[in-house]
Design a protein that fits this description.
Transmembrane segments: 50-76
Biased composition (Basic and acidic residues): 22-32
Number of strands: 0
Order of helices and strands: HH
Strand content: under 5%
Shape: rod-shaped
Keywords: Membrane, Transmembrane, Transmembrane helix
Region (Disordered): 9-34, 89-108
Radius of gyration: 38 Å
Biased composition (Gly residues): 89-102
Structural class: mainly alpha
């Protein structure tokens, strides 16, 4: 792209050139995101109830997911314990994830 050369025109064909026109600054911005460009975005204080409500909903969802995962883990541990008891592979109770549990056998 060639470089643009700017020069002041004194006269064209013996006539004075028209005065330079300034580009009017737009009073209304077409794009609201363009208006936000380069500014620090602050949350409007009127919206705080919405953010509190969304935070409570997000916390409730996280707690619900945690309770469901914990329930599934407990059910799998119970099923695993029942299967170990029925199959007789329980061992001395020191194996597995639970650590030192109680043995169900009455051997002394």
């Amino acid at each position: 792209m060639p470089d643009t050369i700017e020069a002041e025109v004194l006269e064209i064909d013996g006539k004075q050139p028209p005065p330079p026109q300034r580009e009017p600054e737009p009073t209304r911005r077409d794009d609201p995101w363009q208006a936000m460009r380069g500014r620090v975005i602050k949350l409007d204080r009127r919206w705080w109830p919405l953010w509190v409500l969304l935070g409570i909903v997000a916390l409730a969802i996280a707690l619900t997911v945690g309770v469901v995962v914990a329930a599934v883990v407990i059910v799998f541990k119970i099923i695993g314990g029942v299967l170990r008891f029925l199959l007789g592979t329980g061992g001395g109770g020191s194996q597995g994830m639970g650590g030192g549990g109680t043995s169900l056998s009455r051997r002394g």
